[in-house]
Amino acid sequence: MQADPRPSGFWALFAWFAPAVAVLLAVTLYPTGVVLWLSVHRTRLYEVVEGVGLANYVSVITSPAFLELSLNSLLYVFGALAVVLPLGLASALALQNIARGAAYVRTLLLLPWTLSMGVVGCFWLWLLNPSYGPMSYLMRSLGMEPGLMLGDPSLALVLVILVTAWWSFPYVMVMMSASLQSIPAELYEAIDIDGGGLRARLRHAVWPHIAPTLGSTALALGILYLTLITLILVLTGGGPLGSTATWSFEVFSSAFRSVDLSPSSVISVVVLAVNLFLGYLYTRLTGRVSG
Amino acid sequence: MLSWAVLTALVLVVLIPLSWAVLTSLKSEASVMAYPPTFFPTEPSLSAYKAVFRNETFGSDLFNSVLYAVGAVALAVVLSAPAGYAASRFEFRGKRTVMLLILSTSMIPGVALLVPTYFLLDALGLLNNAAVIIVVQAARLVPQTVWFMQNFVDAVPRELDEATQVDGANHWQTFTKVILPLVRPGIAASAVIGMVTTWNDYITVAAFAPEVAHRTLQVALVNQVFDSIGITWSYVMAYAVVSSLPIVAIFVLAQRWFISGLTAGAVKG
User: Fold this and answer.
1) End-to-end distance of chain B based on CA atoms, in angstroms?
2) CB-based contact A283:A289 (threshold 8 Å)
3) Nearest CA distance, B120 vs chain A (angstrom)
């Protein structure tokens, strides 16, 4: 007798998948339907008043506030990626190159990633406080005027990006380390036999091998940054003057204080759509959903 | 050597801010405000930590953090393991669709579901409910856990199933008696990542269970920062350290699973 790859009938199969699917339907898919439905209605607090078609979309998307949120979201995502990708890649390459102690160094470098955004936010709120914080002291000692730090509208987003990078570069490091370790040794040997040096190694073995992982890591982090709320909430609360408010931050902060839920719902749908698109690219790059 | 120079610089960039925060928690209230600031506390004291432990909601905040993290991970594994087994072992029409449905839900961001979920929970009277928080957090872990389980079951040779089934076992017995014990590394990796994710969450609990009796250490910490009147930085830093210690300890002890959980699926080759 051989193990039967087909369980007996539909209901037997259904039983294996039902618990997972039922919870996902209730917690994820059903609310997704509800947010689409809310986005085409007008509400008064938590009561639906009337259907308004796409009017909510038109009024939200054409507003100057939405333009600023979009700009902040883009600057934040690309700004943070521009810092973490080189840092993470450099640290992974360096870890690969040292003979001893790599495990200890990696543990130390990974620490920020294990901390919550709330904790990281508190730490940096303290380090960056303008009156007696070490950062402003350091800047003054170097002859610079620190100003309001996180309270400065022209500086706040940059500082939030740098804190985000401090917290999340270890993720890139881990991904790139794993990718580097999966390069077959024969590839290096072949290049050595052909007389190639370090440059040839980087160009012909390392780069083509790690490029897809670098891409998928960038997408995964892009999705994370786009939906990130807590760090911004703690560091700046979206301020000063809305200079650090992103789409997701706006969803969170307006959902619980506005009279009409529909503008938050519209922005939720925008975040959802952008995310699904990035997620689609991610699965193409990783071959993760191949069924 | 260049590699060591890069790593030393990065270690300093990571450790100096971390140490500054931790050392602040050991300073007295007065020396925290000293200018110019000092790195090391002149008279180290544990009074900020004593104040954290004396805080009357600390016990319930800690209890909720543990309850939600352990509950969500356990529930996610229970829900996902059978699906992972079935996805690995059965061939049937529509399998690709089912797996796509499960995995694509992981691309729907939690933030997009804040408004509708709050709306639904409010209508059903289910805000501030520990079971709801556990189910919501577990659902976030399910797609990844199913995918993990499928990969780990794939790695178990089918001959083992066949040998068991020749002895008269059915699929459920094969799954519970043979497969589950062998895929413990997969369960460990899912559990460590799920534990860190749930423990560190602020948004889900703050939005759906804002009442003091149901909040976690993370929510209590962030609320203290908003409560800016009379904020004591040594106290906030001590609270942040205490609320991070369990998860940092899990990370250090289970680093292997943490890293395999992070990299699974994202690295080809």
Assistant:
1) 30
2) yes
3) 8
Return the ∠ at Cα A237 (arms to A235 and A243), rounded to 5°: 95
pLDDT in tens, chain A (291 residues): 444 555 567 788 889 999 999 999 999 999 999 999 999 999 888 888 888 889 999 999 999 999 999 999 999 999 999 999 999 999 999 998 887 888 999 999 999 999 999 999 999 999 998 888 888 888 888 888 878 888 888 899 999 999 999 999 999 999 999 999 888 888 888 888 888 777 888 888 888 889 999 999 999 999 999 999 999 999 998 989 999 999 999 999 988 887 888 899 999 999 999 999 998 898 888 775 543
Neighbour-count burial of B267, counting CB atoms closer than 10 A to its CB (0-12 exposed, 13-18 middle, 19+ buried):
buried
Classified as helix, coil or strand, A155 is: coil
Give Cα B230 to chain centroid, integer Å: 31
A291–B113 C-beta distance less than 8 A? no
Q: Which residue of A has its CA nearest to B138?
A: A23
Residue of A nearest to B114 (CA): A252
Distance CA B92, CA B191 (A): 29
Residue B154 in contact with partner chain A when CB distance is under 8 A: no
Mutate to test the interface with A, among B52, B111, B140, B165 (most CBs of A within 10 A): B111
For tokens 């594994």, what's the residue?
Answer: B77
**What does the DSSP assignment read for B190-224?**
HHHHHHHHHHH--HHHHHH--SGGG--HHHHHHHH
Give A-chain residues touching B139 at CB under 8 angstroms.
23-24, 26-28
Chain B from 2 to 21: CB within 8 A of any A CB: 2-4, 6-7, 10-11, 13-15, 17-18, 20-21
Of residues B91, B113, B266, nearest to A28 (C-beta): B113
So what's the pLDDT on residue A290? 45
A19 contacts on B by Cβ (under 8 Å): 78-79, 82-83
Tokens, residue B139? 């659902």
Q: Which two structure tokens, joined as six digits, stand for A140?
A: 């003054």
User: H/E element holding B146?
Assistant: helix B130-154
The residue count of chain B comes to 269
State whether A5 and B91 contact (CB < 8 Å): yes
Residues of A in contact with B104 (CB under 8 A): 279, 289
* DSSP codes, A80-146: HHHHHHHHHHHHHHHHHH-SSSHHHHHHHHHHHHHS-HHHHHHHHHHHT-TTT-HHHHHHHHTT---
- B183 within 8 A of B152, measured Cβ to Cβ: yes
**Would the CB atoms of B100 and A217 count as touching at under 8 Å?**
no
pLDDT at res. A291: 36
Confidence at residue A4, expressed as pLDDT on a 0 to 100 scale = 55
The predicted model scores a pTM of 0.92
The string of pLDDT tens digits covering residues B48-101 is: 999 999 988 999 999 999 999 999 999 999 999 999 999 999 988 888 899 988
**Residue ranges of chain B with per-residue pLDDT less than 50:** 268-269
Residue bearing tokens 């009337």: A50
